[in-house]
Amino acid sequence: MSNYHIKHLEEYFQVYRKSVRDPESFWEEIAEEHFVWRKKWDKVLDWDFSKPEIKWFRNAKLNITENCLDRHLHTRGDKTAILFEPNDPKEEAQHITYRQLHEKVCRMANVLQDHGIKKGDRVCIYLPMIPELAVALLACARIGAIHSVVFAGFSSQALANRINDCDCKMVIASDGSYRGNKTLELKGIVDVALKECLGVESVLVVKRTGEKVEMQDGRDQWLQPLLDAASTECKAVEVDAEDPLFILYTSGSTGKPKGMVHTTGGYMVFVAYTFKNIFQYRENDVYWCTADIGWVTGHSYIVYGPLANGATSVMFEGVPSYPDYGRFWDVVEKHKVNQFYTAPTAIRALAKESLDYVEKHDLSSLKVLGSVGEPINEEAWHWYNTNVGKNKSPIVDTWWQTETGGIMISPIPYVTPTAPTYATLPFIGIQPALMDENENELKGNQVEGRLCIKFPWPGMARTIWGNHKRYGETYFSAYKNKYFTGDGALRDAVGYYRITGRVDDVIIVSGHNLGTAPIEDAINEHPAVAESAVVGFPHDVKGNALYGFVILKEVGESRVRENLKKEINQQITELIGPIAKLDKIQFVSGLPKTRSAKIMRRILRKIAGKDTSNLGDTSTLLNPEVIQEIMDNAL
Ligand code: 6R9
Q1: Which UniProt keywords apply (predicted)?
Q2: Distance 11 CA to ligand 1 centre (A)
Q3: Rounded to an integer, what distance in angstroms lies between the CA atom of residue 590 and that of residue 319?
Q4: Cα of 373 from ligand 1 centre, angstroms
Q5: What is the reported pTM?
Q6: Is the distance from the beta carbon of residue 536 to the nearest atom of ligand 1 less than 6 Å?
Q7: Does residue 486 line the site of ligand 1, with CB under 6 A?
Q8: Which residues contact 43 (CB under 8 A, 6 or more apart)?
Q9: How far is the C-alpha of 77 from the C-alpha of 310, rounded, in Å?
Q10: Distance CA 442, CA 452 (A)
Q11: Residue-wise pLDDT tens digits, 265-315
Q12: Per-residue pLDDT tens for 585-630?
C-alpha cells in the first residue's frame, strides 16, 4: 500500500524522505493505486528546468471526470458530491449526488459538443458560484476542452483580454449574480466584452437572477432548455496526461496577466493527494472551502481535489456578511461542516464584529480549519483558533499559488504541530529552498531568503498559454535550475517555514493577486495623468490596500483633483475590476527614480506604510528632492 493517507508525524517524515529520495517511484505508487487510467505511463517524469520542460506520466491516458465522477457511481452514487448553499438562506440548499452530478456533467458536455466544442478548444466560463459553474468545468474536462474560468468580478475589458488571449470559442455565463443584498448583471458585461472578441461563436446563458438580458440571435442561447433536451450519457474523451485541463490567469509583476496552463494527469494526482491529507478528509465528512471557483483555490479544492476523493464539497454562493456576520457559522452549523477552508481577509473582517455572531452557532462539527491566500497574521490566527476552532481544531495555514496547482507548504492536521503564522513543513514531495541575493542556497535553519522549489511536483503549471518564453523568464531564470515563487520566506530553528510575503511587484489585496503594472497602465490611460506608481500598504482587513502616487499633466484646482480621484478609480474599475481600486491617491510632482529611470518602489512603500524613519539607501536616486514633498503630503 502506498502512503496515501498520512496519520502521524513519524510517518510524515518517513514518507517525506521517501518522496525526496525517489520521487518517481513515490508518485508512481500514488498514481497507480488511487486513480483510474485508460492507459498507464511509460515514464513517470521528464524534466529540465533550464528549458523549462516538465512532463509527468508520459503517454498515460485518462479522463479526469472518470476519476471525479464515474468511478464513484457504484460506491457513492447517492452520496452528496456538491452541496450548494445559495446566497439567500431562505432559498433551499441543493444536495447534488454523484449520480446527479454525473448526469448534469454529461448533459452539459453533450451541449458543448453540439455547439462544436472539441478536444483542445478553449471555453471561457464567467459564472457566479452556482452549481452550473462546477458542472461547466467538468463538462469541458469530459470532452477534453480546456476551461478558462474568469472570476465574475472582473470587468468587461479584463474578460475580453482573457477571452482573446487564449482564443475562446465559447462563453458560458449567467444573466446575473447575487451577492449579499445586491444583484449584479453579468450578461451585459459579457456583451460589452464580446464586441472585442470576434472568435467567440456561441454564448450559453444560465438563468439565475431573472434579469432582463439581450440575447444576440445566432450567438446566444439559454442553457437550460438545451440541457433538458440533452442525453444524460456522454462518453468521456480520452486525453493524454499532459494535455491541458485548464488555463487560469494570474497577475504578474509586469505585463498582462499570465494564462497559467495546468495539465491533466499530474494535476489530478497532486490535488487529490494534498486534499486527502491536508484536510484529513474521512468518508462521511462535509468539507467547505469558501473560495470562488474563479480562483485556483476553487478549482483545486472545491472541484477537482474533493471530487477525486469522492468527498462532499460545499459550494457557497453568498458572502460572509449577509444576511449578517454570522453567515459562515450558520452554514457550518446547518450542514455540520467538518473541514472549513477560508482566507485571512475574511477572518479579519469577521473578527471585527461581535463575537455573538460566532457564539450563537454550534460549531462542534469542525475538525480542521484552513487558511489560504496570504500570510495569516498572529491576531487573526488566534481569533480563528480560539473562537472558531475552540482550541481543538488545528489550523492548516496552506501556502501555494496558481502556478503550483496545489498546496505546497502546510501542516497536516493532527500530525504536524501548528504554530501561528507558520505554514510549517513542506508537503510530501515538495523540496523548497531559500536563496540569498547572490543566488546561493541558504542551508540549515534560522535563515531567511527567497523561496524557490528545487524539484518538480506533479501539480505545477507547465507553461504560460501562448508564451512559453515568458514562463521560463518569470519562473526559471532568477535561480538556475529552480522554480522561483516570487515570495520571501524564513525557516526557523525547527525547520518550519513562514512566508513573509511577495518580493516582487505583486500585491495581495484581500487574498487577490494584483500586479502593479496593469493598475498603473489603467491609471495612465486617464487623459489627465502623466505617470503613476502603485504600492501596497498594510490594511487591517484586506491585508494590503493600494496606494497610488500620481503625477498629473496639469496641477489644476483641488476640486478638480478630488473629481480626478474618482475618475481614476472608475477607470480602474472599467479596465480591471473593482478589486483593483485604490484606497488612497496622492498627487505628486515627481516619483523617486533610479538613474536607470526605474521607480524606487521600496521608498514609496515605506511612505505609504508610514514607516519613514529609515528610508534606506537613496544615494542612487536621480531626484532625491521629491521624497520630502511626497512625505509632507502623504495620506
Ligand atoms: C492559492 C493562492 C499566490 C500568492 C503566493 C503568496 C500568497 C498564498 C499563502 C500566501 C502566505 C499563505 N499566499 N497562500 N502567503 N501564506 N498560506 O492563493 O494562489 O492567488 O496565485 O496567490 O498568495 O504570496 O505567492 P494565488
Answers
A1: Acetylation, ATP-binding, Ligase, Nucleotide-binding
A2: 27
A3: 41
A4: 4
A5: 0.92
A6: no
A7: yes
A8: 58, 59
A9: 10
A10: 11
A11: 999 999 999 999 999 999 999 999 999 999 999 999 999 999 999 999 999
A12: 999 999 998 776 778 888 999 999 999 888 877 777 788 889 999 9
